[in-house]
Write a structure and sequence with these properties.
globular, 140 residues, Hut operon positive regulatory protein HutP, RNA-binding
């Protein structure tokens, strides 16, 4: 089966919405069987103040897990997609505390980053999702 950008985006959403480490590991194993590399990163706090840290955590996790190689082309794809996904949710999360997860997936040239977060005050939470895709040459 040919996996395209839609499949990889769905996979990043699937890993970002996992609710436990056990569930996360199960989904990663399922995706690996399909040839999709995946990793998830927990995030929390004031989103706007922690944007650089969130992007850094996404990049480090992607490298350590083998989702990407350590080269500027791959780094740029993950950083760019993570930044774009954050910008999609930033206006809604401005000034609020958030908690959630980033899901990062890759298959050949397709890289997808999904941010799934709960945000708000006390028990009055809202949910927000940001999703971005990047393409990298499969020769790297």
């Amino acid at each position: 089966m040919q996996l395209d950008s839609t499949h990889i985006a769905k996979a990043s959403i699937k890993i970002a919405i996992t609710s436990s480490r056990e569930d996360e590991q199960r989904v990663i194993k399922e995706l690996n069987k399909e040839g999709i590399k995946a990793v998830a990163v927990d995030i929390g706090g004031n989103l706007i103040q922690s944007i650089p840290k969130v992007i850094e955590r996404a990049l480090v996790a992607s490298r350590r897990s083998g989702v990407i190689k350590e080269c500027h082309v791959h780094d740029g794809a993950v950083v760019g997609a993570a930044r774009e996904a954050i910008m999609q949710v930033a206006s809604k999360a401005n000034g609020m505390n958030v908690g959630g997860k980033i899901g990062i997936t890759r298959h050949k040239e397709h890289v997808s980053v999904c941010i799934f977060m709960s945000m708000g005050l006390l028990h009055l939470n809202d949910v927000v999702v940001g999703l971005c895709h990047r393409s990298i040459p499969d020769i790297y």
